[in-house]
Design brief:
Length: 230
């Protein structure tokens, strides 16, 4: 257990240092995440009518915007630049892989909504939290692991289970923080746009730090990290 704590400190320290050193380069990540949140808030990306023409268009637009988010994250996390020169390749690089990957995620969320129908608010939150946690490495599996479709979803579940402290804990903190902030800020009557901007800032930070954690743990398995600690 002691070595697991040391491992958590090692990985988290690396990810935090890498993230803070690149804060000046995350503006494109923030801009595209903010755009996606605004579209979701205005209902333009509401996938409630998935079986209709409008729902399908919303799905395509969501994947389109997410392609830019992922390309910007890839530029920052892997190459250490803002991604200005590669932004035009976002659709060609990630649209197809995200199209199939997000389809499975939407199906899973649809099944979860059906499962918790009639359940208590707390029960629904717990189930939703678990699903979000297990699929939280989905974007990293796409832009770092080069996976897509159901394979990306299953790989995300496996990665989170295999890395409960180094990745799972950080991801759980983000999910809880975002959920609590959204409820509390709206409850306090904070302006919707301000709420969205705050959430976008937090999501940007955690997306980058999770990217660094994923990259580091993927390149350096636990045994290798243990050997590196001596």
């Amino acid at each position: 257990m002691r070595d697991l704590v040391k491992d958590f400190i090692q990985v988290s320290s690396y990810a935090l240092k890498a993230t803070f050193s690149k804060l000046g380069k995350v503006y494109l990540v923030f801009a595209f995440i903010l755009l996606r949140l605004i579209l979701q808030d205005t209902g333009m990306l509401g996938i409630s009518a998935f079986g209709s023409i409008g729902g399908f268009v919303n799905y395509l637009v969501d994947v389109l915007v997410l392609s830019f988010v992922v390309q910007a994250l890839r530029a920052v996390v892997i190459y250490g630049n803002p991604g200005k020169k590669s932004v035009q390749t976002s659709i060609n690089t990630f649209f197809q892989s995200l199209l199939s990957t997000m389809f499975y995620l939407y199906i899973i969320n649809l099944l979860v909504d059906m499962l918790v129908m009639g359940a208590s608010q707390r029960g629904a939150f717990v189930v939703s939290f678990i699903v979000k946690l297990l699929t939280s490495a989905l974007l990293e599996e796409v832009y770092i692991g080069n996976k897509h479709g159901f394979y990306a979803v299953s790989s995300s579940v496996k990665f989170v289970i295999d890395n409960p402290l180094t990745y799972g804990l950080i991801s759980a903190i983000f999910i809880l923080l975002e959920s609590l902030l959204m409820m509390n800020l709206q409850g306090l009557g904070i302006n919707t746009l301000i709420t969205i901007i705050i959430i976008a800032v937090i999501r940007t930070f955690f997306c980058v730090i999770r990217g660094h954690i994923f990259k580091y743990t993927d390149e350096h398995p636990y045994r290798q990290r243990k050997f590196m600690r001596g």
